[in-house]
Structure formats: C-alpha cells, structure tokens
Amino acid sequence: MGYVIAIDGPAGAGKSTIARLLAKKLGFLYLDTGALYRSITYQALQEKTGLEDEDALAEIARKADIDLQQETDGLRVLLNGRDVTSEIRTPEVTNHTF
User: Fold this and answer.
1) Domain count, the chain
2) Residues 55 and 85 in one domain
3) Which pTM was predicted?
4) What angle, 0 to 180 degrees and rounded to 10, lies between the N-to-C axes of helices 33-46 and 54-63?
C-alpha cells in the first residue's frame, strides 16, 4: 500500500507549493486535486449548469476526461482533450469553486 499525504487549508496559503516540494523530495507523485475541482467547475460554467445541482455536477464529473500532465514549467490540464490550464485559474472559476 502506498502513502498518501493530504494538505488542506485556505486559498493562497501555499498548499500547492509545499505539496510539490514535498512530493519531489520524497519521490512521490503530486496530484493537484484543485485542478480537478476547477476543471469540473469550468465545464459546468461552460454548460451553464447550476452549481447547486449535485446530480448534474456528478454527471459532468463522470463524463469528463481530465488529464493532468506534469511539465517542466508546471502542471498542464487537459479537459476532454482541450488545454484549459489557464481557463481554470480565472477569477470566475476560482470564485465558483468550492
């Protein structure tokens, strides 16, 4: 069984920075779960799906093909084959991700 380390906290606290450094130091895989949440939020906003509609959001998540690719300059996020790395970090997506 592998190890899992979860870091939780408020936005802007440095969670991702610490997690990436820790993963590198320990030789672990870094998984940016925030990118997953943001991708689903982005898709819901594109489809004009109500963010309170849990069933609709679950369906978006089931259908979504999310590919996180670690690049030398950071994480690249593909949603259904489309690079949405920048789009998921916009204020609109940030303000609707919870």
Assistant:
1) 2
2) yes
3) 0.81
4) 110
